[in-house]
Sequence to fold (661 residues):
Amino acid sequence: MKADEKYGFTYLFANEPAMNHAKLSEQYIGKTFDEVMPAKEAKILHLNYKKAAMHKETMVFTDEVDLADGSKLIGESILTPVMDEEGIVKYVVSVTRDITVSLLEKNQLIESEQRARSIVDHNLDGVITLDMSGKIIDLNPAARMITGYSNQQFISAYISDYIYEEDDCHFQQVLSKTKSGIASETIDCRFVHQKGEVVDVHLKMLPIIINQKVSGIYAIIRDLSQLTKNAEIIANMSFYDQLTGLPNRRALLSGLDKHLETDTAKKSDTALLYIDLDRFKYINDSFGHLVGDEILKKVAERLCQFEYRDYSVYRQGGDEFILLLPNTSKKDANKFAQKILDSFKKSFYFDSSEYYITPSIGISLYPADGKDAESLIKAADEALFRVKEKGKAHFQFYQGRIDTIHRNVVELETHLRKALENEELTLYYQPQLELATNEIVSFEALLRWHSKEFGFISPAEFIPLAEDTGLILPIGQWVIDTACSQIKQWSEQFNREFRIAVNISPRQFQDQNLVDTIRHAINKYNIAPDLLEVEITEGTMQDTAAAIPILKKMKKLGIMVSVDDFGTGYSSLSYLKQFPIDVLKIDQSFVKDVMTNNKDAAITTTIIHLAKSLGMDVIAEGVESKEQAQFLLEADCAYVQGYYYYRPLPANEIENIMMNR
Ligand code: C2E
Ligand code: MG
Ligand code: MG
Fold:
């Protein structure tokens, strides 16, 4: 670089590697840093050059350059000022070397040193570093703990000074063996503690070998008294829960299996109650784990206070507890579970705050539900799963294979497949009424499964699983076909037209053939398309781009489209505008609390207004009382459906109703 008096620099010459490093184009000569590179880099370079020129001294600096492949190149530049006879700096020559690799190696070295250091510092054993003469160079924290000496007191003393006299001879032998490069065996040895007591330790010595030469020794010591204590603690820990002091899952497994082998157990029933606290995560998340832990302790206490033969309480883990009631009938277990539920009606106090918690309880009985600990626990857990599913704060007995099947998609699939073949599926119809006149105007078709093997299974349980297995597709086809056939039959029978709505789940909606299936059924029974309604959920419409063309095809076909459970899912007002929707179905959760919850009342009225202003019909689901109906009437809701009017009924019962109206 050519330098001027004001410490300005311009390029004079750069060889090819330099041009690459600084990313210079061909016309660099005569240019300043600012003219060839970003301002920030130019400034740094200029500063370094200026320093070299001002101080008339060689300068070294490193910089990083981003390469085209995304990697970095680290360059070390040496700047040498070149002066004329009068000592004025005329040029600055820069020589840059690529030091990426050597820097990397240096960093790796530092890292590996730190790694080695970490093993020593955090080792639970005491590690004492010695030089070849046996002088102490370093102690890790554990060694300081065991011996009681600080680093200063110890360092530059000889280790043999701290070995109990009688052990010194043995110690010296081991030391000299280690010096020859062989790790010693572990020996028992006594250390003199700073306070004068003698500490029993296990001692092992390792040579520190650097470049094939022994250059030091690690003496590793382990406090034996602590070891015995630890062993006790560990044994205790493995069978007891630290937080509540209750026996844990391991204790349960081994204790229960032993108990089941006894004669008394064989002669009578044993009940296992699996308890899970409802929404406990909420307590942890909102009040912190400290509060969570305190409450768990109090729950444990409460579970232990019942007066009942010799029952035992275990903490299964987290917010789960297991109670074991030996010599207990189903009836007794039932009473006991009720007692537990009652006992939770009282709140839990902690830190002058009150917390309400409810438990859910699943119950299994020995020997009916399982012959060993594992299977009894599993059965109770499955019953518990059903309690949670049905709304928590409840208890339930294991129901045999059906519980397992609900959780076993593979098995369910085979049974559901058979259900379709064996005609175990039926459609029930729930009337939908015009609120102002109390006239039945339409129906919602709801699927029912009366399994020959397991009895009644609710759609809320099997439909999600049918979705997972894809079985919803043939089932859905059957539903559409059956509903269309019913429309035809009733319009002939009653000489009046009724619309029937069928539920379409998201998986069905994604099916390419859905519109064809519907068209086919409409043609097959020769019915007016607007007598068929499809209920889709908000979730179905999330993928706007995919949903719009399908809905348009449906509208072209002439069928009606309603949005089920409106307000519970992805409620975006924008989709309402974009989609060709005829009816909004206000979800039952809003209707349920319309009389008691202002927000639900507000949501309900808002949906009704919204539907009106968008030119859609609106129907309220789940109407169960006269008051709700009155509220909806005043809110100007046009249609209703719910237990207050009719439950979903089989076709023949609907026919009876229609004839007698
Ligand atoms: P959904 O479409 O929202 O159906 C309304 C549910 O509420 C039905 O439950 C119905 O029996 C119940 N219900 C009606 N009136 C009242 C009331 O006044 N109070 C209360 N508490 N409940 C009422 P169901 O029959 O158990 O069906 C549950 C869900 O299963 C349905 O919810 C629907 O999403 C799905 N589903 C039912 N049938 C089919 C079907 O054929 N295909 C598909 N894909 N899903 C179906
Ligand atoms: Mg529905
Ligand atoms: Mg609904």
Q: What stands out?
A: The longest helix spans residues 472-494. The pocket of magnesium ion (ligand 3) is lined by residues 564-565, 585, 587, 621 (CB under 6 Å).
